[in-house]
Amino acid sequence: MRTLAILVLCSLAAICLTSDASIGSQPASDNPADEGMFVERDQASAVVRQKRAAGQLSLTQLESLREVCELNLACEHMMDTEGIIAAYTAYYGPIPY
Description:
The protein is 70% helix and 0% strand. It is built from 5 helices and no strands. It starts with a helix and ends in a 5-residue tail after the last helix. The model has no long low-confidence stretch (mean pLDDT 78).
């Protein structure tokens, strides 16, 4: 009886060790369930920025961009010639909203 118990325990240990080895040998990127669950902060903010840029800006948002751009003379001149959105993005980067 004691021999049977030892044999069962050894076989269970062998099964556990081989199943852990097969799971550990796969890189984490190969598991499709893990992909797409979480993204890096930079990627997420880029997606949010693209979705926001798809819609039209309200008059209040355009006015706030204009107020920021008026503080810089070069930006103000570009705003008069090429438009507020082009001037703001040229001098201050992507529109925050």
